[in-house]
Amino acid sequence: MNILALDAAGRFSLAALKRGDETFCAASVYGQGAVRAVYSSVDQALDLAGVRPGELDAIVVNTGPGSWTATRIAVTYTAGLAFGAGLRVYGYSGFDIGKRLDPRGVSFIDQLRKTVAEEGAGEAGFVVDLFGAEDNAVYLADRRAWMDEMLKLGAEALAADAPGDPLELRTTYFQEFLAGARN
Question: How far apart are CA 87 and CA 80, in angstroms?
């Protein structure tokens, strides 16, 4: 089973590809711009794994919260790649991913060092520092469990035979952020 995970919510675009029992990870270079960052991280992961897009079984993407522009680009790119290659695609919010890593919830820290989104009533056990690390290798190492969890979500969706229609993929940042702001 070949599953690609993509997360562009922070300083770097991250891609992880699960091929059988091996996982190949890549991070964009800072300063590339969001479009190039998303494309290059995916290209790197595919190259490292020796997999072509048509050989993927599914793609998983973080739908937010995080960098609004890069998240939209990642979701759009994922939908286009999946649609063009006839793949299933699964979008998960950072809140869903974070809750799997720590049931107490998750909070997201922005480049100004402020909590910009949180779920868990101030008790969030998992903190995602979207812009903390200035080195892509450090950033990727900090987010490795996150990327592994995204790959697990994709494997579970495939095992459950979830539809994964690329035309149904949406960013969920504003809906979830506003819902949290009202609570």
Answer: 10
Residues 106 and 93: their CA atoms lie apart, in Å, by 11
- Residue-wise pLDDT tens digits, 64-119: 888 888 899 999 999 999 999 999 999 999 989 998 999 888 888 888 888 877 77
Structural domains present in the chain: 2-94+134-176 (3.30.420.40)
Q: What is the rounded distance in angstroms from the CA atom of residue 156 to the CA atom of residue 174?
A: 26
pLDDT digits (tens, 9 = 90+) for 122-162: 666 888 898 888 888 888 988 999 999 999 999 999 999 99
C-alpha separations of 4 from 43, 105, 154, 172 in Å: 11, 25, 8, 20
